[in-house]
Design goal:
Number of strands: 11
Family: Belongs to the HMG-CoA lyase family.
Helix content: 40-55%
Distance between the termini: 57 Å
Number of domains: 1
Pfam families: HMGL-like
GO molecular function: hydroxymethylglutaryl-CoA lyase activity; metal ion binding
Oligomer: single chain
Keywords: Lyase, Metal-binding
Protein name: hydroxymethylglutaryl-CoA lyase
CATH architecture: Alpha-Beta Barrel
Number of helices: 14
C-alpha cells in the first residue's frame, strides 16, 4: 500500500481570516462540522490573534467551546483542531481558555506558530524582524509543550515575497531548521503569494535537507495564484517525498499584502489529483495499490459498490462542502474540481427530471 498523505484543512482559519464581512460563530462551526463529516481529521479551527488586526478570528474561543465541536471531539479520537498562536499574549489567551473549559479530549491538542522567511514580509505582517520573531518563540513553544500541546510551525513567503521578490532557498531553509531545533514537530513551507512551480519546490526541499531538515518534517502549503499549485503538490508528494499537504476547501484564502494573490490550493483539487495518482490521503479511505485505478465517482458518474463506493461518496460530500461555503460567502467556488462536479451533478439531475417527465407522459397515454 502506498504511503498516506496527510491533508491539513486550513479553510476555517487561513481561508476565512481575509473575508471582509464578519462571519458568525455558527457559520464557522458548521463549516468545521461539515469538513469533519466529509472525512477530514486535521482542521484548523481559528487563531488567537488580536481582534484589532484580524477581527474575523475574534470568535475563535466561541468556536472551540461550541457544543458541536465538543461532540465531534468525543466522536472522533483522531480529530485535531489546531489553532494559530502568534505570540505570548495569544498563548496566554489559549491557555486561559483551556483552564476555564477543562475537557477530555481538550478543546485543542495543537497550536501553530509562524515566522516569515523575509525581512520585508516580517515587518509588514509581524512588525518585527525575522530574528526577533524567532527569538521570541522558544519560551512559547516550551510553555505549550509543558501543557501537552503539540507545536507546528509555518514559514511564510518561502518562494517569493511581495516586498523582496524571489526568495533564495537558503533563507526559508535556515528558518525551518531553527524552528525544528526549538521543538516544532513539523514545519509547513508556505508559498504565500503562489509563485511556486515544481522546480522551485525541489530546490527549496533539497536545501532544507542540506541544512539538516528531513523531508519527513516538512509540509507544503501552496497558493494557486498562477495556477501551478496542484502540479507543485504532486511533485512534492511523488518526487520529493513530502507527506503533509495544507489545503483549503473551495480555495478560500489570499494574501492582503500581495494584490491579485488568490487563495490556498483547493482541498477538492488536491484530493482529486492525489487519488488519481494512486495516493491514499487522510481525507479518503485507502485506494488500491495499483496506480491509475478508475475513480468514476470522482468524475460524477454513478457510484460503484463496496470500498470504491465509499470513497466516491466521501469525495462528493467534500465537494458539496465547498459548494455550501462558497454560497454562504457569496463568492465563486475557487475549486476547479468542485465546479466540475457541480456541473456534472446538475446535468445528471436535469437528465433525470427529463426522463421522469417522459415516463410520466407515457403513463398518461
Amino acid at each position: 500500500m502506498l504511503h498516506r498523505v496527510k491533508i491539513v484543512e486550513v479553510g476555517p482559519r487561513d481561508g476565512l481570516q481575509n473575508e471582509k464581512a464578519l462571519l458568525s460563530t455558527e457559520l464557522k462551526v458548521e463549516l468545521i462540522e461539515r469538513l469533519v463529516g466529509a472525512g477530514l481529521r486535521d482542521v484548523e479551527a481559528g487563531s488567537f490573534v488580536s481582534p484589532k488586526w484580524v477581527p474575523q478570528m475574534a470568535s475563535t474561543p466561541d468556536v472551540l467551546t461550541s457544543p458541536t465541536l465538543s461532540r465531534l471531539r468525543s466522536l472522533h479520537s483522531s480529530l485535531s483542531l489546531p489553532v494559530l498562536v502568534p505570540n505570548a499574549r495569544g498563548l496566554s489567551s489559549l491557555l486561559s481558555l483551556l483552564d476555564a473549559h477543562p475537557s477530555d479530549p481538550p478543546l485543542t491538542n495543537e497550536l501553530a506558530v509562524f515566522v516569515s522567511a523575509t525581512e520585508g514580509f516580517s515587518r509588514a505582517n509581524l512588525n518585527t524582524s525575522v530574528s526577533s520573531s524567532l527569538d521570541a518563540l522558544p519560551p512559547l513553544i516550551e510553555q505549550a509543550q509543558a501543557r501537552g500541546l503539540r507545536v507546528r510551525a509555518y514559514v511564510s513567503v518561502v518562494l517569493g515575497c511581495p516586498f523582496e521578490g524571489r526568495v533564495e532557498p537558503e533563507q526559508p531553509a535556515a528558518v525551518a531548521k531553527r524552528l525544528l531545533d526549538m521543538g516544532a514537530y513539523e514545519v509547513s513551507l508556505g508559498d504565500t503569494i503562489g509563485v511556486g512551480v515544481p522546480g522551485a519546490w525541489e530546490r527549496l526541499v533539497n536545501e532544507c535537507e542540506r541544512q539538516g531538515v528531513p523531508v519527513s518534517k516538512l509540509a507544503a502549503h501552496c497558493h494557486d495564484t498562477y495556477g501551478t499549485a496542484v502540479s507543485s503538490v504532486l511533485h512534492c508528494v511523488s518526487t520529493l517525498g513530502i507527506r503533509t499537504i495544507d489545503s483549503s476547501i473551495a480555495a478560500l484564502g489570499g494574501c492582503p499584502y500581495s494584490p491579485g494573490a488568490t487563495g490556498n490550493v483547493a482541498t477538492e483539487d488536491v484530493v482529486y489529483a492525489l487519488a488519481h495518482e494512486g495516493w491514499a490521503t487522510s481525507a479518503l479511505p485507502d485506494p488500491d495499490e495499483a496506480r491509475g485505478e478508475r475513480w468514476d465517482g470522482l468524475l460524477g458518474w454513478d457510484s460503484t459498490s463496496g470500498e470504491q463506493g465509499v470513497r466516491e461518496t466521501r469525495f462528493k460530500e467534500l465537494c458539496r462542502v465547498g459548494e455550501w461555503v462558497s454560497e454562504r460567502l457569496g463568492r465563486e467556488n475557487g475549486s476547479r474540481v468542485g465546479r466540475a462536479m457541480k456541473g456534472r451533478r446538475e446535468r445528471r439531475e436535469r437528465d433525470e427530471r427529463k426522463r421522469a417527465d417522459r415516463e410520466g407522459a407515457k403513463a398518461k397515454l
